[in-house]
Amino acid sequence: MTATLDRELTDRPVLSGRLVGWVLLCAGLVGALAAFVLAVEKFALLKDPGYRPSCSINPILSCGSVMTTGQAEVFGFPNPLIGVAAFPVVVATGAALLAGARLPRWWWLGMQAGALFGVGFVHWLAFQSLYRIGALCPYCMAVWVVMILIFTYVTVHNVGGVLARVHTAVPVAWLLLLAGLIGVRFWDYWRTLL
Amino acid sequence: MSRTKTPPSNVESARASAAKAAGQLRRTGISTNLKVTLGILVTALVAVLVVVVINFQGGPHVGRAEVMRTDSNRLSTGATAPEVTVVEFLDFECGGCRAAYADIEKLRGEYRDRVAFVIRYFPLKIHPNAQNAAYAAEAAARQGKLEQMYKTLFDNQAAWAGKREPQTATFEKYAEGIGLDVDRFKKDVRSAEVRARVKTDVSDGTQLGLTGTPSFFVNGEPFAGKARYGPLKAAIDAALAK
């Protein structure tokens, strides 16, 4: 209740810490899980090049063809390792918020920097996946989604204002745009499924 | 933090302003958010419906799709009156097609006198050079050397597949290697007839509901098994036994 009172007394609309906490906790958990699965699949693929990853469903939805590309290890090591290390921080932040903690400004700035890097990185990966590799990897797409959610809610928390007034509209529009691009790019394939 | 803005003595007015702010948040904040979000969702839904309706108005011409056309490319066998016809929709850049190619070659030798093998082009968009490869094969067919090009493309798949850049020069080199008139080949690759031919195959394949390559039809019936030697041989034997 104190948290709510504090918020309401500041004259600008700010999201409740509980909402941001829940979003960060859930999105962080999903992201961590997806990154972990991707890392495990990558190890399996390294052990046995003939291994067929669990998420290689058809020519378009195929982790195998995405995971074996150069883009899958831009920094010289498999990308999912970044997620395995970073998503738990998001989970911990969400849990701390739900526990009622008030995190210092520097913490939020750090979160903002991390989220900015993450969201930029997944968009680069999404571009590569759609227009260079030409295949989609389901676990990677889960990471794109949660990264957009994390970035939106961290930014809304830090900036507030108009953004807070449309806090679900922003990620919804963003994800729809991404879904639209995927729909257009692979239209020929989707229509064969109809 | 902001609590310090309000003097402790003024708890009453703080409560009032808090309630007011909360009301405002409820009125402008939450409802605006919901309205905008729903608006976006509805707009997107309408857009998708419009696109789907427009695309299906022409309707898939299922009746016109054919597994095989009279001018479809047949790989040579000794069979003058084949008892069974195997049609393959293939993509020269697909790994599965490369694997099936070896098996088909083996089957082609074994059933030389009784089975016809027909190949149709189904280059997938996900493969940057599949379309060019199909054009190259069809251009070779115009000079009666489809089979040589078909073999060369698959045998050397590792050398050209998966590359972003157009492999036109590589295919011209192959054309030269199998003894084609390269100038004519270059002209044919770009010609409207060759492109139309590939397009017909793709359109038939799409309308037949193919989801990937290689896709086989045995005597016009879709083959559902794994596109490898054993299952294909079993399907051919079953069709021969009928």
Short description:
The complex is a heterodimer of chains A (194) and B (242). Chain A has 194 residues and is an all-alpha fold.
Number of helices of chain B: 9
CA(first)-CA(last) distance of chain B: 86 Å
Principal-axes geometry of chain B comes out as globular
- Biggest β-sheet of chain B: count, sense, barrel? 5 strands, mixed
Give helix and strand order of chain A, one letter per element, not per position: HHHHHHHHH
Strand order of the largest sheet of chain B: 1-3-2-4-5
Strand content of chain A: under 5%
Relative strand content of chain B: 5-15%
Parts with pLDDT < 50 across at least 5 consecutive residues of chain A:
1-12
Query: What proportion of the residues of chain A is helical, as a percent range?
Result: over 70%
N-to-C SSE string of chain B, H for helix and E for strand: HEEHEHHHHHHEEH
Low-confidence stretches of chain B: 1-9, 59-63
Which percent range fits the helix content of chain B? 55-70%
> Which whole number gives the mean pLDDT of chain A?
86
Oligomeric status: heterodimer
Q: Any idea what the radius of gyration of chain A is? A: 18 Å
Largest interface: which pair? Answer: A-B, 32 and 40 residues
Mean of all residue-level pLDDT scores of chain B: 83
In this structure, how is the largest beta sheet of chain A organized?
none
Secondary-structure class of chain A: mainly alpha
Describe the structure.
The complex is a heterodimer of chains A (194) and B (242). With 194 residues, chain A is mostly helical. Chain A has 9 helices and no strands. Chain A has helices spanning 2-9, 17-47, 63-67, 80-98, 105-133, 138-159, 162-165, 169-185, 187-193. In chain A, helix 2 (17-47) packs antiparallel against helix 4 (80-98), helix 2 packs antiparallel against helix 6 and helix 5 (105-133) runs antiparallel to helix 6 (138-159). Chain A is globular and about 50 Å long. Chain B has 242 residues and is α+β, with helices and mostly antiparallel strands. Chain B is 57% helix and 10% strand. Chain B has helices at 11-57, 95-110, 130-141, 146-155, 157-160, 168-177, 182-190, 192-207, 229-241; strands spanning 73-75, 84-90, 115-121, 215-218, 221-222. Chain B has a 5-stranded mixed β-sheet with strand order 1-3-2-4-5. Chain A binds chain B through residues 4-6, 8-11, 13, 58-60, 132, 134-135, 164-169, 172-173, 176, 180, 183, 186, 188-189, 191-194, and chain B through 1-3, 5-6, 14, 17-19, 21-22, 24-25, 28-29, 32-34, 36-37, 39-41, 44, 48, 55-56, 94, 124-128, 164, 206, 209-213.
